Amino acid sequence: MLENKLTPGSEPKNGVIRGEYHQTAPEEAAGSAAFADEAAGPDRRTARRRFSRMGAAVLVILLVTTVLQVALATILNLTMAGGVQNTSWGLWVVTFAPQYLAAIPLGLLLLRSVPGERPERSSLGAGRYFVIILISIFMMYAGNLLGGAIQGVVEQIVGFVPENPLEEYIGGSSLILQVLCMVILAPLFEELVFRRTLIDRMRPYGEKLAVVTTAAMFALFHGNLSQMFYAFTLGLVFGYVYVRTGKLRYTVGLHMLINLLGGVVGPLLTDWAGDALDLEDVSRLAEAELTPGALALGAYGLLMIVAAIAGLVLLIVRAKRVRFQPTPLELPRGKRFSTAWLNPGMLLFTAACLLMVVSTFLTL
User: What does the domain layout of the chain look like in residue ranges?
Assistant: First the structure.
């Protein structure tokens, strides 16, 4: 991964990240002042209260999104012939407009009351960024495999598993809307919330705690088993990149690329291949007609497998370089989970997300 032994004005070891530090911004100075009363050490009561407020703010995003989605869908269904489902844009508007135009801005406004500090800024070269891309692709597949295994266990217990909700959006919908919502808007808003805003506010209590907690919140926020596990593994990568560089553009770029590959390119090539490849009947693949679409899909699949294997190798080789910088208010071992998660805001957020997961089984 990334080397983190950085000190202002010095070059990092192994040349992984070249220092490019900036003066503290006014809002960061305000955050530093807010932590001044804890200079003697972490105040767990204050930390629990701040984590609770962060959990509550993300819960508000979920609740406002849900309420406005239901209201908007009802209005459109009453005023449009055939309802929302018969339009190429209706489902996208109902799903994303309430979240991006109302819920997330409100959540960010609430989070402003929680003080935070941004990580010191540093830059990534093209070579290092390419390494992180390969690692991200591996983490995406690792999360998918883990999720698939857990869904298999769930299926054995309850007899079925809900389909990936993404399939409802990528199947035959507008390519422009797919790119706009999944490749541009979703990464921008999600990285702003889960990396920039939440990590800035959690990092003073420990970098590892901030990365793992925001990755878990990012996973829970998706509200379904299909996306939850790869959202967590990718959240770990995105969070670590952000705490080491302090620059949101790196994680937004990674997020956009992953969504592009998995949510746009893969489904497009699958549609292009059409019936030439019957993926549900593996025994007939040898008889499949090698159309241009089938060849393109095969090449894409092979490329992704190679990238994932390379990412695994790079992750193993560079794992020893992963370090988390100590922070002045770092919570002691054994108290981190209880402080970050066992508080009203985070417990309610977790319960709401798990309820969303359960609801996916009840709506079949």
Answer: 42-362
